[in-house]
Amino acid sequence: FTYSFAANEVHIHEVYEVRAALEMLAVSLAAERITDEELDALERQVLRESEAEANADEHSLDNIIYIDSSFHDIIYQAAHNQRLVQFVNILQEQLQRFRAASLSRPGRSKTALEEHKQIVEALAERNGELAAKLAKEHIDNAESAMISGMEESIK
Question: pTM of the full predicted structure?
C-alpha cells in the first residue's frame, strides 16, 4: 500500500511538473500577446469564481471546477500558441481529475481564487516574469493540496 501511494505521488508530481512548465510558458506568452478582450474575459472569470466561492455549498464543486478550468483555458488561448494548447489538451483528462481532487480540499478554492486574481493583475501589467512566478506557485499549491488530501485519506 505504501509503495502504491509512493508510485502515485511520483506520477502526480510528474504531471504537475509538466503542468507548471506549460502554465509558466502560457502566462509568459499571454503577458505579451493577450488582447483587451481576453483580459476582460479573464477578469469576468475571476468575478464568476468569486461569486461561486461566496455562494459555495456542498453542491458547488463541479461549478467551481468548471470555472477554474475555463480560467486556465482563457490563458492558454491568450498565449496565441496552438502547440501549447495541443500539449495542454493531451494532459486534460489528468488535469481535470487532479483539479477536482485539489479544489475539493478545504480552503483550496478560496486560495486558488486569490492566486488567480494575482495572475490576472500581472497579466494586466504585461509582467510575464511575475505572472510565471505566480503561476508556478499556484500549481505548486494545487499539487500540495492534492498530496495532503491523499496522505489524509490513507491515515
Answer: 0.91
Gyration radius of the chain's alpha carbons: 15
Longest pairwise C-alpha distance within the chain: 50
Asked if residues 139 and 21 have their Cβ atoms less than 8 Å apart, the reply is: no
Grouping H, G, I as helix, E, B as strand and the rest as coil, residue 80 is coil
Q: Which range has the worst mean pLDDT, 8-12, 83-87, 135-139, 151-155?
A: 151-155
Alpha-carbon distance of 126 to 32, in angstroms, equals 6
Of 84, 19, 75, the residue nearest 42 (C-alpha): 75
Closest CA to 26 of 86, 68, 105, 67: 86
Question: What digits encode the pLDDT tens for the residues 13-40?
Answer: 999 999 999 999 999 999 999 999 999 9
Q: Side chain identity at 40, as an amino acid letter?
A: D
Between residues 112 and 57, which one has the greater pLDDT? 112
Q: Is 35 helix (H, G, I), strand (E, B) or coil?
A: coil
DSSP string for 91-123: HHHHHHHHHHHHHTSTTHHHHHHHHHHHHHHHH
